Amino acid sequence: MRNTLQRELVYDIVMNSSDHPSADVVYERARRMMPRISMGTVYRNLKQLAEAGRIREIRISDDSNRYDKTLHTHAHFRCRVCGRVTDIETECGAAVPANGFSGKLESTDILFGGVCADCAAREEA
Amino acid sequence: MRNTLQRELVYDIVMNSSDHPSADVVYERARRMMPRISMGTVYRNLKQLAEAGRIREIRISDDSNRYDKTLHTHAHFRCRVCGRVTDIETECGAAVPANGFSGKLESTDILFGGVCADCAAREEA
DNA sequence: TGATTTAATAGTAATAGTTACTGATAGCGA
DNA sequence: TCGCTATCAGTAACTATTACTATTAAATCA
């Protein structure tokens, strides 16, 4: 994997973000530093960095994928009102398949959906 | 909610499928019974039936949504080789957010990815 | 039962997220 | 420094899904 300015920029943006940015958001932030960078480059590098294990891809159906600097498996919560994605602890730690599963496990995604505390309070008012 | 032939057909197809069909697959099966049914109708009814709690929507990022006759929360495994989605038991039962989460929880999706036993055996050969 | 209301339909167009393509550029090994 | 080729910018294409519109048909009611 070549060490290009574009790839390092994309990587730095994810590593300095704590808000689980989507490709779109990474693109907007990247353009501030490198105005001619293209969307395709951002997508390609996010995918490659995730494949290389340098960042983590959070797959969110019915929404765009997000990218996370935190590498270890952990659950996420997505607020359907504000769209924010936050880390969340689960009671049993990381879920694992019970005995009896005989395939090859490669990824685990735990996604909770609902309304975050902030938006719930705002809805009350 | 009106009781249309199209809606009952879509519902019956999901209830008689154990392979977690996507909207596309439901559409193909529906056309065999009702050739003039449209894709939009299938999508609309799957969404409405899921909202009404009569079927369950399985959200699979980087792939189309699937639909399940089983209503209670349970984890799924998706094989990246053959694309099949199967039910899977987890060691700790259903994951729940740890104490400290103060939002409103509405959905839980646990998705494992990897290679199923069949495809793994085939890759060996 | 037949008229009326309106949710739902078929068919089509549009949207969003993402990937593919193409000629030009630049990282890196020799 | 030269040459190879991965990567780039820009654009087109693709896929899953939703939106739109005129038409149809459930359900309500006289």
For this structure, the CATH topology of the largest domain in chain A is Arc Repressor Mutant, subunit A
Please write the CATH class name of the largest domain in chain A: Mainly Alpha
Just name the CATH architecture of the largest domain in chain A. Orthogonal Bundle
Q: Strand sequence of the main sheet of chain A, in spatial order?
A: 4-3-5
Total beta strands of chain A: 5
State the fourth-level CATH superfamily of the largest domain in chain A.
Winged helix-like DNA-binding domain superfamily/Winged helix DNA-binding domain
State the end-to-end CA separation of chain A: 52 Å
Low-confidence stretches of chain A: none
Average pLDDT score of chain A: 91
Structure report:
With 125 residues, chain A is of the alpha+beta class. Chain A has two domains: 5-67, Orthogonal Bundle (Arc Repressor Mutant, subunit A), CATH 1.10.10; 75-124, Dna Ligase, domain 1. The first copy, chain A, contains four helices and five strands; from the N terminus they run αααβββββα. Chain A has helices at 5-15, 23-33, 39-51, 117-124, and strands at residues 56-58, 66-68, 75-79, 85-88, 104-115. A three-stranded mixed sheet of chain A has the order 4-3-5. A two-stranded antiparallel sheet of chain A has the order 1-2. Chain A starts with a helix and ends with a helix. The A-B interface holds A 59-62, 65, 75, 77, 79-80, 88-93, 95-98, 100-117, 119-120 and B 59-62, 65, 75, 77, 79-80, 88-93, 95-98, 100-117, 119-120. Strand 5 (104-115) of chain A pairs antiparallel with strand 5 of chain B.
